[in-house]
Every structure is written in structure tokens, then in C-alpha cells.
Amino acid sequence: MFQIFKSDSVLPTLLLVTIWLISLVYIHQWGVAPFPWEIKNYLLGQKLNQGFLIYEDIRDNTAPLAALFYQIIQWFSIPVDWNIYISSIIVIYQSYIFQQTIQRYELMPQIGYLPFLMYAIIFHLSLEFLAPGPALIGLTFLLLAWREIIYQQRTLQVNDRVILIGIYMAIASLFYLSYSLFFLWALLSLLFYSGISLRQIVLMIIGFLMVISLNILFFLFNGNLTFMIQVFKRSAFQFQVPEKLEITQIAGVFAPALLIGIWGFWLILRSRRIRSNAQKGQQTNLIWIITAVFATLTVPSLIRINLLFFLPALAYFGLNIFHLSSNSLLKELAIWLLIAGTWFNVQKELKNKDQERIPPATLSLKNQRLMILGPQIQEYLGNQMVGPFVNWDLAKPLFSNLDQYKNVVLLHEYFEKDAPDYIYDAEDNIKKLGVYLPNLKKSYRQVEPKLYQRNQ
């Protein structure tokens, strides 16, 4: 396989993409249930298309452009099980950027279309990567910024196109807020490995702030800027330290990419065959890895899809195996190691799908206006979601801090603005809330355990 993709012929790559797309149809036929966060994003898009405002009417910490993306998806009425096709198109485009950047700027000569193959395989290490999460979508603009950085590093003469880096970084951040830390990566990469001037640094910062300012003005105009700040103060801007179990589970999925990346990095340390331009690329990639470690502390939740920003850097380091190693057998081994690791991970996920994916709905309700006070988001399947509680982790503090007057007022507004016909109260919040909102308790009667129906 190494010899096939090492050639300059594009035919093997086209064949790979064709097989890839055909295999998606096969995977689609498995009928595997979606992940909980896929349903959350699906419901978020629905609520936005109904005229509700993100952060004010919908309590969720999805970044603004990602929320817009899900709104567009639902505007076209694209079902959840088509996510596999959407994410694959995104990964194919990212693979193209990865391939073209390495090939055009000769970061690794004489390896043909292996960058495309490496990137494509690594992004199949988990079935969770085959769904368009904010981290995956925003990664496209990080790669565009990386391509522009490599372009600027070719010579010591940095031009005014550096403003594009700031713009790309801002767009990536508005898809996934943790990517805002990568602005430091972009700045350091240019300071260390290019002749960037103070004026051009300011220009890059202007590009970044210009896009961010437009976003702030938009939310200020809609009157929900305060709500956006409150939501992100409680979630995305809080540093978290991963637990040992979480690290073990994530490392198991990323293990093949980590092994290939460390192997390639070790070859770099031992080699003297790397040219000046390629050295800048390797060092820029190392800064990416360091930045990614710090970004891990800011992700909304420690799941695989939220940490995939490690993969491009690991793929880049892994390519050194094909560039610097003289043993053809080891090169073949590296490719098949990735393929075997991908197959093993997918089989393991399918075996544990009942634990990781959304369980079947248990309520007998169908086509009803339903509000769920709990994490049982699967109960919305087959019903119309009512209310702002698409993300229970953010909504739960409202019910646990009812001694704060502002929380009671906010909950009263939520129930008045979008009153449901049924409330599924998995955590007995109605009883607590009824003390502060007696009209709510009078308006609903319990018809089943945990289920309340509005009085006619």
C-alpha cells in the first residue's frame, strides 16, 4: 500500500475516496443509534428554526457558528442518520488541505498522496469522528490557518495576507471556543519561524478581533449578549482536570495515532535530512501539540470528538516514518498498524454501543409537546421539544439554586414563554419548583410516575 500511495498518480486517492463513500452507505445500514450530543445538536437546530434565541431561550454552550451550522442543517430537514455523510465530506476536504499544504510547500518530498491517506485513516479511529461536532467543523479553519502560516514561513518576507490567519482563527474559535487558544500557537509560529513585523502582528490581531467583534455586535443587537456571557462563564471558560478513567478511555482510542506520532517524532530527533522549510513545519507542529494539551483543559466535556484537534499534528509527525525511514517493511507496518487500530476501535465501540449511544425512548408519548427536566434527551424522539433545556448540565443549576430570586424569575419566564403539554420530570424538580411557582403546580397534574400533563 505504501508504494501505491507514494506515487504521484491521483488515481489511488480517487479510488480510496470512492471506496470510502461506498462504505458509508454500508455503515449507514447498520442503523446504530446516535450519540446523545448528536441529538442535542439536532434539537438545537430545530429550536433555532422555530425562532428561539441561542443562550437566552436555549440553554446550551454550543459556539455561535456551530449553532448556525446546526440551524442550517435542520432548515434543510436533514435527518440525524445523515451525519455520517456530512462529517465525511468535511474530513475529505480537510484531508485535501492537509495533502496540498504538504505537497505545495514541499514539507515532505517524495511521499505522494500518503498525507491524504494518513489523515483519512486517523479520522476513522472512532465512529464518533463520523459525526459533525463543533470541534470537527472548526478544525477546517485551523487547517486553513496552518496552511497560511506555512506559506508565510517560506521566506523571511511576511506579507499582509497574515490578516487571513487572524480571520481563520476567529472563525475556528466561533465554531469551537477552545480553538481560541490556538491563536497563541499561530502567533508563536510566526514570531519564531518567520520575519513577521510588529505591524503585521497587529494586522493579524485586527483580523481576529474584527470577526469576534462582528459576532458580539450581532448578539448585542439581538439583546442576548449578556446571556451568552453567562452561559460561557459557567461552562466553556472553566478549566477542568481530566480524571484517570477519562484519560484511559480516550488514550485507548487515540493509541494508534499516538504511537505513529511518537514514532515519527523520534525519527525527527535522530535525522539530519530535514531541510530548513520542513524544520519550520515540524517545529510549528510541536507548538500545535503543546497548545492542544492546554486546550484540553477548556473543552466542554472530555469525549473523543472534543479532542480530535490532536489528530492532524499526530498525522503530520507520523508522516516522517515514510519520509525518514529507509526500511520499506516498517513503512508498510505503519500503515497497517493504523488500519488494524481503526478496525479494533470500531469493533470495540460497536460492542459497547449500548453504553455510549443514546438508549431507546421509554415514554409512550408520540407527537406531543414535551419538556424534559433531566438528561433523558432520548425521550424527545418522536415528540416536539418544548422549553430551553437542551443541555441539562447547564440547566440543572437553575433548579438546585432556587433560593436565588433571579433563577426563579428565569424559570417562570421559560415556562410562560413556551408552555409544554407534558413534562417529564426525572429528578422531581416540579415539587421543589411548585413552592416558588404555585401556578405551575396548579397547571399540571401527574398522570404517570415522573410524567405531568397540563390541565385543559
TrEMBL record:
Keywords per UniProt: Membrane, Transmembrane, Transmembrane helix
Membrane-spanning parts: 9-27, 82-99, 111-127, 162-195, 201-227, 247-266, 286-317
The protein, known as: Glycosyltransferase RgtA/B/C/D-like domain-containing protein
Source species: Aquirufa rosea
